[in-house]
Amino acid sequence: MSTQALGTVAFEQVGKTYPSAAGPVHALQDITLEVPASTIFGIIGRSGAGKSSLLRTINRLERPTTGRVRVDGVDIATLDEEGLVALRRRIGMIFQHFNLLSAKTVWDNVALPLQVAGVGREATAARVGELLALVGLADKARVYPARLSGGQKQRVGIARALATRPEILLCDEATSALDPETTQSILGLLRDINRRLGITIVLITHEMSVIREVADQVLVLEQGRNVELGPVWRVFGAPRDAATRALLAPLQHGVPDDLRRRLEAGVTPGRPSERILRLSYTGEGGLEPDFARIGDAFSLPLRLVHGGVDRIQGHAHGRLLVAVPGEHPLPDLSALARGPGAIAHAIEEIGHVADHTR
Ligand SMILES: Nc1ncnc2c1ncn2[C@@H]1O[C@H](COP(=O)(O)OP(=O)(O)OP(=O)(O)O)[C@@H](O)[C@H]1O
User: Fold this and answer.
1) Which own/partner contact pairs does 135-141 have at CB distance under 8 Å and 24+ positions apart?
2) Is the CB of 21 under 6 A from ligand 1?
3) Average pLDDT of the chain?
4) Helix count (H) and strand count (E) of the chain?
5) Structural domain 9-250, CATH architecture
């Protein structure tokens, strides 16, 4: 008997190969990692990286070609039909396009898994009432899905997925069909479910902002392999793999167009100029941008040009572009990014621009 908390998923050297006319497709290769119980675990990767394949091994919608998937310590490949049915009651799933039955009301959609599980009429009614209240749709019980907004449909999907009190919830691009505001409300609901009910949530998405918003840990897949895994604040703050950096590019605070043009234009010798410096914050060690200390470190007039700091799980990460007068020598930048007196995790000079203000 396992002593792990309920809702733990462990992948052990999981591989998945699909046959295809063009030869075998190695969708997953040698994935070994553990999703701790009661956490929110995100899986990202470009299209075809193997995200769906990995997610679907958790409830045995896909069987690994090699290796093992354990849920609460049990190798799910060993389950018989009955065991598999029981496993799927412990693992809810929600989908991008909700997968609701259009001919059934909200109430009937949510009741269905309970009816299939043989739950009695009264207990079903009580549970459906509870679930609709949980997802904020108590007044929509008799409505058909066609009359609901996307966000409401996903709430029905969540209520249905939670009907049998699962310990794990799999989310397959659950917010990808929703507008940003509705996405926020669904993410808030998922976070609430995770915190209040202790349900482990494994989600795949192509929206990096979703991971940043809710996930505790993130796995980056590239061509079926684990190329990076860690707490979101670390992976997003200081991505180590090129694939991660490429995925995160849309979230980075880049150099704005006008500044880029000024950097490209260069400076005229003898005319006033400014140096543009980039200060980066990765979330490590609780280091935060502190303008008083930054100013002291340079002992030069300093101007904030561009940038921003996000907070992920309480860790500050982001980049600031600052300008200092070009004619003064700079302090040792690498020393300013080292040790207890560091003012940023990395400081680099990205170029000079003409100073039109002098
Ligand atoms: N049933 C299948 N038969 C053959 N090849 C498959 C099958 N399912 C997936 N693949 C292939 O396996 C690889 C991984 O697919 P998978 O759907 O897991 O990736 P993904 O990261 O979820 O992609 P997407 O973001 O586009 O959904 C891809 O090359 C895909 O074409």
Assistant:
1) 135/159, 135/189, 136/189, 137/106, 140/106, 141/105, 141/106, 141/107
2) no
3) 92
4) 12, 14
5) 3-Layer(aba) Sandwich (3.40)
CA 303 to ligand 1 center in whole angstroms: 48
Element (H, E) at 257: helix 257-265
Number of other CB atoms surrounding residue 196 within 10 Å: 9
SS3 content of the chain, % helix, strand, coil (to 5): 35, 30, 35
Q: How far is CA 159 from CA 144, 149, 214, in A?
A: 15, 15, 19
- C-alpha 53 – ligand 1 centre gap (Å): 6
Give me the residues paired with residue 277 across strands. 322, 349
Distance (Å, rounded) from C-alpha 101 to C-alpha 85? 20
SS3 (DSSP) at 141: coil
Model pLDDT for residues 59-86, shown as the tens digit of each residue = 999 999 999 999 999 999 999 999 999 9
Strand positions, DSSP E, the chain: 9-18, 25-35, 40-44, 66-71, 74-75, 91-95, 168-172, 200-204, 217-222, 225-231, 273-282, 303-312, 315-325, 346-354
Q: Above pLDDT 70, what percent of the chain? A: 97
Burial tier of 50 (Cβ tally within 10 Å: 0-12, 13-18, 19+): buried
Residue 9's φ and ψ, nearest 5 degrees, are -120, 130
Q: What is the pLDDT of residues 141-170, one digit of tens each?
A: 999 999 999 999 999 999 999 999 999 999
Q: Which two tokens stand for residue 75?
A: 């190798």
The amino acid occupying position 298 is: F
* 111 Cβ neighbours under 8 A, 6+ residues apart: 124, 125, 128, 163
What are the residue boundaries of the structural domains of the chain, listed by start?
Answer: 9-250, 257-354
Helices (H), 51-90: 51-57, 81-89
Q: Which atom of ligand 1 is least distant from the CA of 56?
A: 18
Partners of 321 in the beta sheet? Answer: 278, 306
Q: Is the CB of 185 under 6 A from ligand 1?
A: no
Q: What is the CATH number of domain 257-354?
A: 3.30.70.260
What is the model's pTM?
0.79
